Every structure is written in C-alpha cells, then in structure tokens.
C-alpha cells in the first residue's frame, strides 16, 4: 500500500496527506508501514503522568480488530456516537469506525456540563443506531437515557470488553464518502450535525500542515475536547495527517490546574499547542511564580489562538508572565475556522506573531473599517491571517448578497474543498447556509454567520451576526463591550461575562451578566456603577442592567462558549444564582449620546 500512497512534499521535504486522492485511513496505513514504531499518541491520564500510548502499527491493527467486530454488529454506513473521555480510546474508536465503513458521530464529552442532555439531542438528531464507548461511561449514561422516542433499535456497545480477535481491512473509503458527523458547540443556537467527507478532512489537514509550516519531528500537546472540532481535527487528526506526535490531556485536568498544560509542553518539547483566548488568560492569572520553576517554553513555536475573540491584553499578560521561562511572543499564532468548513480557514504565519490593528469603533458599527485618533473610539482587532490560495473568502452584504470591497464589514462567506455538504436533516437550512451564491461570483458559498472584513489581504472578524446588538443605526458587538470591561473594570472576566439587549424596545437597558469570583469581598453597587459608566462612556448606550451571578452558573457549551440565547431566557426570572443587580443610567438624552458616538467623542 505504501507504494501507492501519494504524498505532498512540504517545505522541508516532509510527507503530508494528499487531500486530492487519499483519506485519513490511507494515512494511518501509510505510517503503519513506513514508520510502524512511531509513537503517535501519548496520554497523560491524570494530567501529569503517562498512562497510555500507541504506535502507528498498533493503532492500525487495533482499528482493524475493533472495526471487524463492529461490522458484525452494525451495517455499513450505520451511525455510531463516540462516547469516550479525552483518551486514546476516542481515537481508537474513531479509526475503527472509519476502517469499517461506520459513520462516527462526534460531539459529546461525557464529563462536560449537560452532557446527558446533549447526548440525547445528538442521538435523536443524528439518527445514530448505536453508541460506542467504555463500559463505565456507557453504564452511567444508559441509566438515565431511555430508548429513542421513535422506538427504533439502539445499541450500547462497549469497546473495552476484552481481547478482540484479529481483524482485517475489508472497507476502503473514497474521498467523497461521508467520514464523520461533527456537532457544533451550540453557543448561539441548537447544535448542528455537520457532515464531513474524507476529502473535507484531508484537505483541512493539508491546509493545517501548510499553515503551521509542519516539520518532521514537530510534537503537539492537546487538552481540547476530542468531541470538539478543534480538539479532534486540529489536535489529534493532524498527527495522523503528518506523521507527527501528540500528547493528550483531559480538559478537566487542565481546568483544575492550568500549569499542567504548560508542563506537558515543556516536558515533551512540544512545538505546537494552543486553544481559545480564555485559556491563555487563565494561565496568566492563576499560575503562581513558584510554578514557573522547571518550565522551559522555548520549544513552543506555535501557540495558536482561535475559536473566540482574541484580545491583545490576554497575549500581553501571558507573554509577561512566561517570557522569563522562554516563551517568545512571536510564537503567538492566530487562526479562524468553523466546523462547517471542517476547521481551519485562515491562519497567520509561523514565527511572525499576531498582527493587531486599531480601528474606529463607530465606523465598524456602521460597516466600515477605518482608523481613529480618539482613544475612546478605538478598537483593536487581531488579524486572523492571510487567505489561502485554494480557499475563496468573500465579504458580502447579508441582505443583497453583493460582494463588498476591502474594508467594508459584512458576512464572511467561504468557498473551499473543506466546506461541508451540509447539516444532518436540515434541508431548508442547508439551502440557505451552504447553497447560496454571491452576486457576480461563480459557485456556492458557505454563509458563516460571522461578520468581518478584509484589510491588506488578511481577514478580521468583528463578531457573530446572531449576537450583535443594534442601537439606532449602529451595530455593537458583545465581544468589544466585554473586552472594554475586562480592561477597565475590576473583577470582570471575559469568559464568564455576556452582554445582550433586554428586549427589542429601544428604551430597554443593555444587560451585562457576569460571574463574581469573590462575591463576599466585592462592593456590588460600586462595581455595577463602574461597569455601567465604562460601557456608556464608550458606546451609544444610556442604560445598563448589571447582573451578578455565582461562579459556575453561566450556561456554556462543551468548548466553554457562553450560550447567550439560553442566558437571556435564564435571567428573565428570579434565580438563586443571581447575587444582585445594579441599574446604571447615563446622563444626557439618547440622541445626544448617539450623536457623540457618531463623531467618536463618547
């Protein structure tokens, strides 16, 4: 088989997956023959010590053994939910499905908040006929999860029940075959099952390898949930696509003690690792100076930051904290992607850091990216990198579908070999999201639901369409409001704060809900007034209702994003997790406030 595996040579002659003709199954078989003893994955089961590991030849054989057994229980193209902890068993189960023609369904991390409800929703939506996982996890879920509402047969299949008989490879997937159903996080709406073909995945792995400048010997550390697209495709499968090495940790172990992430990078001399912006902030705030002893982060060449708003303050604080132990600010690496495009869409360049530019907050709210000299009107945005040659990005007017010129804010639309065929069982939505065009452009484009613009050939993301706040003719972005609060108001954390309008009524206050890290020591009246003043000084807002919540009460997705719509409903009624509220009213009429904002004088 190795003679027929067509590889693409990277800049240093390394072998990477050829997305045009091969699949991730081909990649595993290739590495099993070419470098059988390469230890692809290492698991730190307690977040610190090695408890499992697997080589290329071992993973290839286990996939065949388990895959052959699954084929006896399930028909080809049956759908099976992966229900594993963040362990090598997740990868073993995934590859067993792929080599046997079974469609794995990814999207449930069993230890995440709300995992059982999410499992039931995904089971019913995906039309899965089975779930595979370890006995202990399956037993917990089976106790509280009844049979499907439609009465269909559903199998609970433990994959750790004993030694499996030797299996063989009897199914060869083709590039256009459905490979995986990946569920979205559901931060702004009900999670969707994204259909991904083998070509979608292979192309994205190829793009990642090119963007990262992947070199032979690169090692990654992944703590992100394997049930999430960034953890699975950007953390685990890139290892198979390139023949690299990956060290796995569980997200709950890193959340409990963030320094475990950095210790793994230091110990295994990892060159590639990252996550959302909040994790960099968490490390900078919570890791004590004494924990820096023994750390050496000079090996870390790509510290990718994606999946949410990228804040310059976060990066500055992280660099100040960890530069004494070798971290280089040029290692920061910004990227933009989404599950509907498999994962990565744009990225910065290895070794060049993240580029920030300052724009007028008011101009952005009116749909134009221009500079501003007024400090209160300035908003810093991170470039998400250059646009790849085989991916087309168009900024379009969401109403007219016309292409907008560079510097105009509109909906980001994508045309790429990595774009999914669509969602599971959502025909009308698929036509709107995946089947639409752009006036004057050929072919269909994915409507991302993200607002952004192109400047100097690079993509900048402004915010989500679903989260935007409209005040008069101005569009405000919650991420910008929260970023201002975390910079100018004490005790505010970006990953535990959300912002929305109480109602469509123009007189309704802006609601700012935030968790208090130390409720007993905080003067809520003073903090509420400070928050309201900070917002009203910088935005055309006259009233702010500040709601203080207990730590841990913010509703979030498995990947840590706040479920804004659910929080809006959650706060409509009295709740024991609400510690208090403050109403701030800015002096001056709304008309005067908006006029000042229009001239960058707020």
TrEMBL record:
Entry's Gene Ontology molecular function annotations = adenylyltransferase activity; ligase activity
**UniProt GO cellular component terms:** plasma membrane
Q: Which UniProt keywords apply?
A: Ligase
Q: Which GO terms describe its biological process?
A: Actinobacterium-type cell wall biogenesis; fatty acid biosynthetic process
InterPro entries linked to this entry: AMP-bd_C_sf, AMP-dep_synth/lig_dom, ANL_N_sf, FAAL/FAAC
Superkingdom classification of source: Bacteria
- What Pfam families is this protein classified in? AMP-binding
All copies of the AMP-dependent synthetase/ligase domain together span 50-423
Q: Which chain regions cross the lipid bilayer?
A: none
Q: Which SUPFAM superfamilies match?
A: Acetyl-CoA synthetase-like (SSF56801)
Annotated family:
Belongs to the ATP-dependent AMP-binding enzyme family.
Name it.
Fatty acyl-AMP ligase
What is the taxonomic lineage of the source species? Answer: Bacteria, Pseudomonadati, Pseudomonadota, Alphaproteobacteria, Acetobacterales
């Amino acid at each position: 088989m190795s003679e027929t595996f067509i590889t693409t040579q990277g800049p240093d002659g390394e072998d990477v997956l050829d997305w045009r003709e091969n699949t991730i199954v081909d990649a595993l078989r290739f590495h099993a023959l070419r470098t059988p003893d390469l230890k692809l994955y290492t698991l730190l089961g307690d977040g610190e010590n090695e408890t499992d590991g697997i080589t290329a030849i071992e993973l290839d054989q286990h996939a065949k053994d388990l895959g052959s057994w699954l084929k006896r229980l399930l028909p080809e193209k049956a759908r099976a939910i992966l229900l594993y902890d963040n362990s090598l068993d997740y990868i073993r189960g995934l590859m067993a499905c792929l080599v046997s023609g079974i469609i794995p369904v990814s999207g449930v991390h069993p230890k995440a908040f709300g995992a059982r409800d999410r499992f039931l929703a995904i089971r019913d939506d995906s039309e899965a006929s089975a779930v595979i996982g370890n006995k202990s996890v399956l037993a917990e879920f089976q106790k509280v999860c009844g049979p499907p509402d439609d009465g269909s047969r559903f199998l609970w299949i433990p994959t750790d029940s004993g030694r499996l008989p030797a299996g063989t490879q009897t199914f060869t997937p083709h590039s256009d075959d459905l490979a995986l159903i990946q569920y979205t996080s559901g931060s702004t709406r009900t999670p969707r099952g994204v259909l991904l073909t083998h070509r979608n995945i292979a192309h994205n792995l190829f793009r990642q390898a090119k963007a990262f400048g992947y070199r032979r010997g690169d090692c990654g550390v992944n703590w992100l949930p394997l049930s999430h697209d960034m953890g699975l495709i950007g953390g685990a499968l890139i290892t198979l696509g390139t023949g690299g090495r990956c060290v796995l940790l569980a997200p709950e172990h890193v959340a409990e003690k963030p320094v475990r992430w950095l210790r793994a990078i230091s110990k295994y001399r990892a060159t590639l690792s990252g996550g959302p912006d909040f994790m960099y902030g968490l490390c900078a705030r919570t890791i004590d100076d004494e924990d820096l002893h023994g750390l050496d982060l000079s090996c870390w060449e790509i510290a990718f930051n994606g999946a949410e708003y990228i804040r310059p303050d976060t990066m500055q604080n992280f660099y100040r904290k960890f530069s004494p132990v070798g971290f280089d600010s040029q290692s920061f690496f910004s990227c933009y992607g989404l599950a509907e495009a498999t994962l990565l869409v744009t990225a910065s360049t290895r070794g060049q850091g993240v580029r920030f530019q300052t724009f007028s907050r008011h101009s952005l709210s009116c749909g134009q990216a221009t500079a501003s000299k007024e400090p209160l009107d300035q908003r810093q945005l991170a470039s998400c990198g250059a646009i790849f040659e085989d991916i087309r990005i168009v900024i379009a007017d969401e109403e007219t579908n016309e292409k907008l010129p560079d510097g105009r804010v509109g909906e980001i639309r994508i045309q790429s070999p990595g774009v999914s065929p669509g969602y599971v069982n959502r025909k009308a939505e698929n036509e709107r999201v995946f089947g639409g065009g752009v006036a004057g452009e050929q072919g269909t484009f994915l409507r991302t639901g993200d607002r952004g613009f192109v400047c100097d050939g690079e993509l900048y993301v402004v915010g989500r369409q679903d989260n935007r706040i409209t005040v008069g003719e101005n569009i405000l972005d919650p991420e910008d409001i929260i970023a201002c609060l975390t910079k100018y108001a004490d005790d505010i954390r970006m990953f535990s704060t959300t912002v929305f309008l109480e109602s469509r009524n123009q007189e309704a206050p802006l609601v700012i809900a935030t968790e208090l890290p130390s409720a007993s020591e905080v003067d809520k009246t003073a903090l509420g007034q400070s928050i309201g003043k900070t917002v009203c000084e910088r935005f055309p807002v006259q009233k702010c209702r500040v709601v203080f919540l207990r730590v841990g009460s913010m509703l979030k997705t498995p990947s840590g994003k706040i479920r804004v719509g659910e929080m809006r409903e959650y706060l409509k009624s009295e709740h024991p997790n609400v510690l208090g509220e403050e109403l701030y009213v800015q002096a001056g009429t709304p008309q005067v406030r908006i006029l000042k904002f229009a001239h960058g004088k707020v």
